[in-house]
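User: Can you predict the 3D structure for this chain?
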Amino acid sequence: MIDSHCHLDFEEFDRDRDAVLTESANAGVTDLVIPGTTADSWLRTLHLCREHPFLHAALGLHPYFMDQHQAPDIDRLRELLVEHGEVVAVGEIGLDFALSDPDRNHQKKLVQQQLEIAAEIDLPVILHVRKAHDEMIQLLKQTPVRGGTVHAFNGSLQQAGHYQALGFCLGFGGMLTYPHSRRLHTLASQVSRETIVLETDAPDMTGFNHHGERNSPAYLPEVRDEIAKLRNESPDEVERYTTENARRVFNLPGDSQAHV
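Assistant: Here is the predicted structure, written as structure tokens:
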């Protein structure tokens, strides 16, 4: 299995990162995509992924941290992406209009700049979108990129179709395992299997069985099993096609094997 969205570089894992990786490998997680969020975290993310060949770095400026981003960060992002050809995506980027006081124009400008870089370098993007799917889809139509993933997708079935047409996969994670997540259950059961990828967003967005705990990529099988139940498919089948989808969208090798 591939965890298509895991913040293993966050300080929450500093005390036991290797143990978490061992546990995840034992659970069948062979690859993890580690999205960047701020410029001051990029080198740490790159270093971590160089230490472990089954970790794959993405670099981006997250809309949640708008007050931390500086104008020179865009040029630095382009430089690092050119310098480090092993980076698999631009992300985590996007639009978050659910924030208490979102600067929508500033967010749109920042994500537009990053989409242009992704198009220029021919990389997929990892999108964070809250209460802004229509606006994000419009931006993607204006600046086409080589697909990517929509992290923690919670839009409509129609919006899912638009993203699929633009080459995107949709990330489903721990929230899917809660009994009250009926809207997500409907989405996961109805979207095309070609669009589904697994994710944890660890250390955040912990699933039902671990509520109140730090999330972990080792819990990814619980997301796989929930999708299998909702779609009346076998866990092995879900594991196979979600892994194929993640490998395709991030251009990952087909024989990665997690070893710590």
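The chain has one domain: 2-250. Residues 104-121 form the longest helix (18 residues).
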